[in-house]
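Example for tutorial group B:
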């Protein structure tokens, strides 16, 4: 009979849940999708109540954020300040999460 040495495969030290969650997202290559969903979910906090109340729908495809706005003047203002919105998203969620914005 062969003796086996017991070497646990699990890491014995503790880590903060946030770090473990981020490692898990990286391991399964879900970080980009998670960040995209977070941008959509937190659109109101990012842009404010006025923009959020006039946003009809949000979606992300191939790192492009599609925003449907119901107000014409607000639509023009966001189009003019598209680079500022992209900068806000990059600062909060990381560079490369959203590469462009299309206002519908």
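The residue assignment follows.
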């Amino acid at each position: 009979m062969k003796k086996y040495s017991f070497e646990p495969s699990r890491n014995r030290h503790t880590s903060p849940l946030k770090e473990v969650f981020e490692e898990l997202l990286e391991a399964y290559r879900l970080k980009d999708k998670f960040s995209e969903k977070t941008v959509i979910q937190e659109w109101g906090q990012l842009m404010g109540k006025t923009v959020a109340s006039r946003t009809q729908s949000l979606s992300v495809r191939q790192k492009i954020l599609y925003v449907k706005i119901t107000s014409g003047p607000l639509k023009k203002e966001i189009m003019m300040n598209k680079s500022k919105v992209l900068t806000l998203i990059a600062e909060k969620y990381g560079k490369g999460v959203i590469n462009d914005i299309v206002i519908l």
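The longest helix spans residues 82-93. Compare this with the pattern of hydrophobic and polar residues in the output above.
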